[in-house]
Structure formats: structure tokens, C-alpha cells
Specification:
The structure is a homodimer of 453-residue chains.
Chain A lengths: L14 E5 L3 H9 L6 E6 L3 E3 L4 H5 L9 E3 H4 L6 E5 L4 E3 L4 E4 L2 E4 L2 E4 L3 E3 L17 H20 L3 H7 L1 E5 L3 H17 L13 E5 L11 H14 L2 E3 L4 E5 L2 E4 L6 E4 L2 E4 L3 E3 L16 E2 L5 E2 L2 E6 L4 E2 L13 H21 L16 E6 L2 E6 L2 E4 L1 H14 L3 H17 L27 H4 L2
Parallel strand pairs in A: 1-2, 1-9, 2-5, 9-21, 11-12, 11-17, 12-13, 19-22
Antiparallel strand pairs in A: 3-4, 6-7, 7-8, 10-18, 14-15, 15-16, 20-21, 23-24, 24-25
Chain lengths: 453, 453
């Protein structure tokens, strides 16, 4: 690629700008370790997040630092990487630069790995009452709401209101929804009953709603069946073929017209739709219905061989299977390595973009955990479940966590949690005040013996 | 004590209301384990916090869950304790009840252990620019500000503004101030220099300001001297006999009139004055200048033998030494055990309050840590410092942490941190956006080679 000399006379090194330090973006930058280029890695946060374990923050099993590593630390020894904390607001393909508010950063190559965010099918007003789970702040907010629900139920005098506070609806039965529902049921039924005096937390209802006719629709029917049965055995209410049509404070509406139904629920957690990061819209490329960029077989934007889109933001097709690359960590990592390799090769050899290889996705299997020592696996061409699947799940997740320290700590947490069924991160933080609306009448001395007995 | 029968005919059990689940309040409730009474333990948060290690959250060494335990978990097996999440707004001694907003809770005995909060000597407007360190939310906010300062400095083009962003002022050289200053200097000089490409974090200035003529004024002169020397060796600027007279955004004013001086500082941390929780004002008892309740030798409010005040909220005098009981964890714990014992005894035996013993404080020694493997100790009638003092400090703090799980994790964290000088919890969380005001001109392609080199 032709790079003009720097005004100082010193030739400028080609610059690769990577937007997003998730599984995809990190892999691109790592793959450029030996390449003669400058890598600018931009992210809205200062940490690389191991998103598959985010539900464990939301359910108080792990602390944020256990599953997040400062991006700068990852690239501490890779001196051609510069990390910038900032939010990319626009891509200007014609001027070959990105904008972060008023600041512009030019690129020779651009890799967009900005990921996806939760989407409410056009009902953004649902978000306030049904938070999604994409960032650490999301997870801490859900943790706060879940723990507060039990605290509020403890003080609630009215039986109906108490029942509503102890009703949790999880919308969407993908891996996150299934894992959330299972963990919530474990909290209510096993972790905290002995902690409360007035309320019986084992009566908490966890309702998992899914539009499809099975849970974990992306996994094998055997795994769906097994996960469904395991959730039911734990006491989770699973409602399939169920469409949420409205969410208000403490209320979920299901179905329409004659089938309309209302569920009083103090907490709703959104684990359903996602859509591509809005920054993709400025690319002037074709997007699919979920806001993802339709990329060519080389993961580049058609007509722009210097712009790649990878990970959850890409609508890509695997070259060999001709199937869509799924929006999972594996897909992002493989695309990231592929694109990093393509750029490194073209930088070194000057090979023309026309001669690029095509990306093929290799499915290494899927795993989802349902609760303590239970999981389902589709791997090595077969499906299995139970303790061994869970052990495999634990092993895979720990191995993939970046950073040696985190691995040890997460293992200690898990081992401890598994042994005593505790959840050590049960902290209500954040400055919001308790939302107890109808607290129990703690009343006057003479009639108090019963009220607080 | 005379307790009227419950309207239902069943005799009501005497009720002890404890406000605050810090070191003092927890000990009161634990001491009433075998007593035939109901204990209502009210706290604004759901966790008991090991406050002496809070600075380690603020400096990214530990996660909140490492030093906090859900209060309910502490009393899981003590069935006469009921935990209520709520904020006590008023005490009504005449009606023997406390108010939490519109809710009243009656008591037979009341123990106020609501602690202290940071005070700005009547300059509440300083708080916004100089946060204190009393709660987990405080610590996370300080962590966010400190880490953001380096991120902003990395993008700052103007040398003067960059220098200001890398200037941290810690006001107050008690244990918290000394520990904060030492940890900040370690972060800047050892933990993160390799993570940044443009800014040299080792140039960060940490200025510790103290009004007295020595650091750690509550410790022995030998320890003060040693801590001062250790801080200086680390590169902390220690300014004694220095009075802060104004704080604005990014600006600290020192002295008055001819001695007036201004320090540009991107971050100011307040570790100076504290004052008693405002709830004490409703007691109609005598307060000292720091808003603490002057209690009798039995830790009770004069004229109200059924109301005790303990911990940081009490201005108490030790019966044997006739010296003031210091506002430290030991003092709160000893008062809590004493008061719990008094109540248990009077409940069981009906002994009159006139025959109560007097509280004597036993100083078990003081420890303060200055940095990695450095500490000072005043203990066993002598002063010493260095690695052994630090080992003792670590041991004491780990032993006192409530909850076995936390101890293991904290030890792993510390061992790891000590070995590799990492700080694992370096996460910027919280929804506030970066406050970069004059970001570097990331500019156009042609003049970019240098700007980001």
C-alpha cells in the first residue's frame, strides 16, 4: 500500500485503527504484533471484558475485576499498540478517518469491532424497566435491582406486592437468559433463604420467556430439551412461544388481543434482541435487519478493502459451510485473527486485496451452564449434559480468561461458591436509594411484637 | 426492665435496636447472641464494610466484595437478629422510637453506632472536587477519577494541563491519607508506566498536605518520622503545617493572605476532617465540636440509660486512662462488646443501670502501611517499621476481615500484587463520560506520524 512520506521527511508507518477491544478487536491487534505498523485501539471503556461471564457479576458470584482486564495491560509489551479511551461517533470512509466527537483519527486500515447492544424491537421505552446485560455497569445495575428486590420484599406488608417483588422475568432464552434464570433461582432457593426472617425467598418465581419453541434455540434440540428439563427441575418457569408485547414498571404484557396477559414482576431482565452498534450506520454499507454490516468473504466492506467489520457487528458468511457466522466469542476471535493476518500479510508483501483468502468459521462447539454443576454441551459432533459438561464449561471459561491472576481468583471463587453455595459479591452499590414504596408498618411499640416477629 | 404484655396476650420480648452495622454495631448484635431479646439491626447499606482497607478499593488493589460482607450473612445463624436496610432519620427519645422516613421502629434499648462522615470544616462545596472515602461508592468514585486522570493525561496535548492532570493532592495525613498517598505514588511510578505510550506517569506528583507538624499525628513521633521518610523516599511530596483554604475544580488553595498559594491539581482526595452522623442531633444530647455525642462512662447518653452511643459517633472517655477513646475500629469494637454485655446482663438479671461497669479502652497498638512491604507500628510499648511491620499489618488486617472466603481472596490478591506489582481492579466503571476537555489534536493523516508516535 502506498503511504506518503511524513512532512518531517521520515516515512510514516501505516496505521491500523481498531474500534472496540472485545474478543475480535483484541485478536486483530495481537495478530499485528510483528507487523511494521502503528495500531490504534479505541474503546469506550478501559477494560477488555469477558462477556460470557457477565451474568455472574449480575448474580453476585464474581466481582467485575475477576472478568475484566485493563486493555493497556494486555498490550503492555506490544509497543506498536496505542490504546485510546474514547467513543467513536462516526466513520468517514471517503476521508479515511474516524471521528470521536470533534477529534479525528486517520487510518490506512480500519477494523470495526464495536459489537452489538441490546435492542428492544423498537420499544426503547422498555429499557428503563428491563435492563440488558452488555457492560459491567449493566451487570452492577442488575445486581443492585435483584438484591434490592429481596430487601424490599422483606419489608413489604402487602402479600400481593410482596409476590410481585419476588417475581423475576427473564426475556430471551439464549445462553445469557438461561444462565441468568438458573442463577436467579439458585440465589432465591439456595443462597439466601436463611438470611431473611420475614420473607420466604424460596417462593420467588423466575419466569423465562422465549419466543421460539425451545430454549437455547442456537444449540442442538437435545441440548434444548435437556436445558429445559434442568430449568424446570430447578423451579424456573419456562414459557416458550411467548412474545413480550409490553413492559411497564413492575408489569410485563404477553401476547395480544384475546391472548393478552399481564404478569406482575418487580424485575425484568432483557436477554432477547441485540442490534449492531450505531456507528455502523455511518459506513454507507449495507446493513441487515439487526443493524449488522454485510461483509464480503474477506470480512471487508464491499468496495472498501481497507475497512473490515468483525464480530457481533458483522453479518458474515462462512466460506466453506455457507452458513452465517454466529454472534459468539469464537466467531469474533476467529474473524479477528483472520483479519489481523490479512493486514499483516498485505503490509509485508504488498499482495493486492483481490488475492485475499476467504474467511471460514470453525465451530468448536457450544456450551451453556444452567446452574451449579449443570451444563449442556454440543461439541465433537455430539450433545451431552450434566456434571462433566459443567466441568468442561468451567475449564473452557477459565482457560479463555485473559490474565493469569484472574484465572486463579475466578477458580477460587467458583470452588468456594460450589462448595458452600455462597455468592460473595452480594453488595448493593450505586447511589440510588431503596425503592420501597409500601414498607411494612413498623408501627408503634404496643402492636409491634407480631409485625416484626 | 418492665415490658408490657403484647395485646395478643403473648409477652413481648424486649427489643434492642442497633443503628449501624460497622465495627461497633456488629459487635453489639453478636454479643446479644444468647440474650432473650429481639435485635433489630438497621443500616443504610446491605454490607458490613472493612473500612480500614477502603483505600485499597480506591487504588484498584482490591474489589469491593473482598472487603465487604452482606450483613444478613453475618447473622444468618443468629435468629434473634433482624436486619433492615434503611436510613434512620431521627431518634425520638421521649417516645422510645426511631424514624426511618415515615416508618417508626420502637425500642427498649437503642444503640447508636451510625459512625462519622467526612466533613469539610463548613465548606461543603469542596466535596464535589475533593471526594472523601467512607463508603464503597466513594471508593469506586475515587478509583474512577484516579484512573481517568491518567487516561486524560495520555490524550492531553498541552504540557501544563497534562501536568495538572497528573497532580494528586491528598488532604490529611492520618492513616487513610498516608496510605492513599503511598498507593497513588506506587500506581504512578511502578504499576502503570509501561501501559502508557505518550505520557510518563512516573512524573505524577502526589502531594500530601497536613495541618499538623507531622504525618500520622495520632501515632508515636518515631512512627511519624519513619512514615515521613518512607513517603519522601517513594517520591511523595509531604507538606506539613499546611492548611487548605479553598478547593475549586482542579485547584487547591493553601494558606491565606501573603502566604496564599495555588496548586493546580486534577484530583483532590479528602482524608481530613470527619464529623458525627447527623442523626445524633435529634438525640437532644450534648455534642462535641465534631458532632459526636458526649456519653457517660457506661457509653450511655446522660439521662437516658437505655440509649447508648458507640464508635466514631461517641465522644467517650476511657475510665482507667481518662483519655478520649480514639475513633478507630478497635475503639468501636470494644465499646460494642461492652455495651452488648451490659444489655445482656441487665436483660437476664434485671440489674439496675446505676450498677453498670465503666468502659475502659485497651489500646492494642496502631499500624499504618505506606506502600509495598513498608509499614509503621506502635505496639507492645514500642515503635518499629519496615517489612516486619508490614507483615504484621497484613496479618492483622486479614485476621480481622469477617468471612473466611474473603480472607483467602484478599491474601491471593495481596500475594499476587506484591509479587508482580500489579493492581488487578483497575476498572473505570460508572456511567459518567470521560472529562477530557482539551484532548490532543488527533488531527489529519499527513501530520499524524508525530502526534501519535
Amino acid at each position: 500500500m502506498d503511504t506518503p512520506p511524513h512532512p518531517s521527511g521520515r516515512p510514516r508507518r501505516p496505521r491500523v485503527v481498531v474500534v472496540g477491544a472485545g474478543f475480535g478487536g483484541i485478536r486483530v491487534a495481537l495478530a499485528l504484533d510483528d507487523a511494521d505498523c502503528d495500531v490504534i485501539l479505541v474503546d469506550r471503556t478501559n477494560h477488555h471484558l469477558f462477556q460470557p461471564l457477565l451474568y455472574q457479576i449480575a448474580t453476585a458470584a464474581l466481582s467485575p475485576a475477576d472478568i475484566a482486564t485493563p486493555i493497556r495491560t494486555v498490550f503492555r509489551h506490544q509497543k506498536n499498540v496505542q490504546v485510546i479511551l474514547g467513543e467513536v461517533t462516526e466513520v468517514q470512509p471517503g476521508r479515511k478517518r474516524i471521528l470521536m466527537g470533534n477529534d479525528a483519527v486517520a487510518y490506512d486500515w480500519l477494523v470495526l469491532a464495536a459489537g452489538a447492544t441490546h435492542a428492544y424491537f423498537g420499544n426503547d421505552q422498555w429499557e428503563e424497566h428491563a435492563p440488558g446485560l452488555k457492560t459491567i455497569d449493566d451487570a452492577l445495575e442488575i445486581r443492585r435491582r435483584v438484591l434490592m428486590a429481596f430487601e424490599e420484599a422483606e419489608l413489604e406488608a402487602d402479600p400481593e406486592a410482596r409476590r410481585a417483588k419476588l417475581t423475576f422475568v427473564v426475556v430471551g432464552a439464549g445462553p445469557t437468559g438461561v444462565e441468568m434464570a438458573g442463577a436467579l433461582r439458585e440465589i432465591a432457593a439456595q443462597t439466601i433463604p436463611a438470611d431473611f426472617r420475614r420473607v420466604d425467598t424460596t417462593t420467588a418465581r423466575i419466569i423465562l420467556m422465549e419466543g421460539a419453541d425451545r430454549v437455547l434455540p442456537a444449540m442442538s434440540p437435545e441440548s434444548s430439551e435437556e436445558a429445559w428439563a434442568a430449568l424446570r427441575r430447578m423451579g424456573v418457569e419456562v414459557r416458550l412461544n411467548t412474545f413480550v408485547t409490553g413492559i411497564e414498571e413492575h408489569l410485563v404484557k404477553v401476547g395480544e388481543g384475546d391472548d393478552e396477559e399481564y404478569v406482575d414482576a418487580g424485575n425484568v431482565i432483557w436477554a432477547a434482541g441485540v442490534e449492531g452498534s450505531p456507528v455502523a450506520r455511518s459506513l454507507e454499507a449495507e446493513l441487515d435487519s439487526a443493524g449488522r454490516v454485510k461483509v464480503g468473504p474477506d470480512c471487508a466492506v464491499p468496495g472498501h478493502p481497507e475497512i473490515f467489520v468483525i464480530g457481533d457487528l458483522a453479518a458474515a458468511t462462512s466460506a466453506d459451510s455457507e452458513e452465517a457466522v454466529p454472534g459468539v466469542a469464537q466467531g469474533a476471535m476467529q474473524m479477528g485473527e483472520f483479519v489481523g493476518g490479512v493486514i499483516a500479510r498485505e503490509l509485508t508483501t504488498g499482495i493486492e486485496p483481490e488475492l485475499r483468502p476467504e474467511f471460514s468459521y470453525r465451530d468448536k462447539g457450544s456450551l451453556a451452564t444452567i446452574g451449579r454443576a449443570r451444563a449442556v454441551a454440543d461439541i465433537w459432533g455430539t450433545s451431552f449434559h450434566g456434571f462433566f459438561a459443567w466441568l468442561l464449561w468451567s475449564l473452557v471459561h477459565v482457560l479463555f480468561l485473559i490474565g493469569f491472576r484472574n484465572k486463579i481468583l475466578v477458580m477460587v471463587h467458583w470452588a468456594w461458591q460450589w462448595l458452600v453455595q455462597a455468592r460473595g459479591a452480594r453488595l448493593i452499590t450505586g447511589r440510588k436509594l431503596p425503592r420501597v414504596k409500601r414498607p411494612v408498618d413498623l408501627g408503634r411499640l404496643e402492636d409491634e411484637g407480631d409485625a416484626l416477629a
